[in-house]
Amino acid sequence: MNRERIRGILGVWMPMVIGLWIIATAVIFYFTADLTASGPFGQDLESWRLVCSAGVFFVGGLMLLSTFGRYQKARAVALEAAQPNTGPGAPSAENEERPRIVK
Length: 103
Known about the structure:
This protein is mainly alpha-helical. It has one domain (3-85). Helix content is 67%, strand content 0%.
């Protein structure tokens, strides 16, 4: 496996997987946590259920969005580099060989 492929997996896909795992954990916590007074903490923490779940959901979503944005930006740069630049504003080989004179 080459370096670029490993870098792509570790830099793009793993943060997305971790973000999805964080979001899944937040949803599971919201629906299954026992936060009543008879729970393990001995006091009623039911009012914190939505706050904790929303905060963790936000962190997972932020990881997904930032990583996906980075992925799109890198992909656009790679596609732009792969296309030959032959438009009217593209420098020709003739202009590149001549030194420019600055006054």
